[in-house]
Design brief:
Layout lengths: L5 E2 L22 H10 L3 H20 L1 H8 L9 H13 L4 H18 L4 H16 L7 E2 L5 E7 L5 H14 L4 E6 L6 H12 L2 E3 L6 H15 L3 E6 L7 H17 L6 E7 L4 H14 L3 E5 L9 H8 L4 E5 L7 E3 L2 H9 L1
Parallel strand pairs: 1-2, 3-6, 3-7, 4-5, 4-6, 7-8, 8-9
Antiparallel strand pairs: 9-10
Length: 349
């Protein structure tokens, strides 16, 4: 596994053992770390190209439905109005939205004119650069070790893959030296607590829950427990809700306030999990949850089953909340950090 998180930059001081809750180095596996110690060569550096290739292969396959119409446009194409019309249609079909689509088209036409681009390959390369520039503001590493404990509040609508994402993130956090505690704050959905408990058992992680209780109280108890145990990261699951369910959105705000009472400055991360299949509706979700909570990041799941992956362009234009992770499958390794250049290459490569 190539680096999934970023450690907090260390001050320019002599090295010292990191206490619980401090920023950690990010070894690939214990085996890798041991090999590095005995040989003086970092195996992660040797493994990364193969790992990166494997991820790019999966990413291209996962985004194939989204890229199907985009990737073939420039094959033997003439640089004329028909090409631009077809590109506009393809971007709209990918749910990039009208604003982002017109922004890209206008910028591309200007680039073609200024640089006197005459062949389709050059125009495609120009579009790649423009798309990377558009999406790069969404790219931000997830930094560990900023708080002890660091509290993450995870929200999303029903069916977005929120609880599964929590389980995957817990596994990756553990692999990067972090102790994790989960809070079963979804007290509404049937079997939600049980589902989170299963992930806790898989990862050997404690889950704070109540058979039937107030989500805010469960979250508060989890934060207090993490402080007492010296846990590095707390992830609070919340009940799935639609932005139009105002009473549930108010409850979400209450959970946030109560977490802050349990630990000043928390929650430090407020993540929204989005189903990539929802297309433009995902943008509406981002706006509503951001208005309610002040989101710090997004996780976009199920991009492998959708032709609407262009919604990231719409988000970049309308509400550029960082996209920390994207998911293109069910396996642990199918959830990875969002990198704008990789994403665009998978769409247009």
């Amino acid at each position: 596994m190539f680096s999934f998180f970023k450690k907090k930059p260390a001050p320019d001081l002599p090295p010292a053992p990191a206490p619980s809750g401090a920023a950690t180095a990010l070894p690939s596996t214990p085996t890798t770390a041991n090999l590095s110690d005995t040989t003086g060569i970092d195996p992660a550096a040797l493994q990364e190209p193969a790992q990166k290739l494997s991820w790019m292969t999966r990413l291209k396959a996962g985004l194939s439905k989204t890229s199907a119409n985009l990737s073939v446009l420039f094959v033997g194409a003439k640089i004329d109005d028909d090409l631009y019309d077809e590109l506009e249609a393809a971007l709209l079909m990918a749910d990039a939205g009208m604003d982002a689509t017109l922004f890209l088209l206008d910028a591309l036409k200007l680039k073609v004119k200024e640089d006197k681009l005459l062949d389709a390959a050059a125009v495609k390369a120009a579009l790649k650069v423009l798309m990377i520039d558009l999406l790069t503001p969404l790219q931000r590493p997830f930094e560990l070790g900023r708080h002890a404990p660091m509290v993450m509040m995870i929200s999303g609508v029903n069916g977005a893959g929120k609880t599964t994402t929590i389980g995957k993130l817990a596994k990756h956090l553990q692999a990067n030296g972090q102790s994790v505690l989960l809070a079963a704050g979804d007290t509404f959905r049937a079997a939600a607590r049980e589902q989170l408990m299963v992930w806790g058992q898989r990862n050997n992680v404690t889950v704070i829950s109540q058979a039937s209780g107030d989500p805010a109280a469960v979250s508060f108890d989890a934060v207090q427990s993490a402080k007492a145990r010296g846990i590095d990261v707390v992830m609070v699951d919340t009940a799935g809700r639609l932005p139009t369910q105002l009473h549930l959105m108010e409850e979400l705000k209450k959970v946030q306030r109560v977490i802050g009472k349990g630990l000043e400055g928390a929650p430090h991360e407020k993540l929204l999990v989005i189903d990539g299949n929802t297309g433009q509706n995902a943008l509406a979700q981002v706006k509503a949850f951001d208005d309610a909570l002040g989101l710090t990041g997004l996780v976009i799941t199920k991009l492998d089953g959708t032709a609407k992956g262009g919604v990231l362009a719409a988000i970049a234009r309308a509400r550029p909340v960082p996209v920390y992770f994207i998911g293109i499958g069910e396996k642990i390794e199918d959830l990875q950090p969002f990198v704008a250049a990789e994403f665009v290459e998978a769409l247009l490569g």
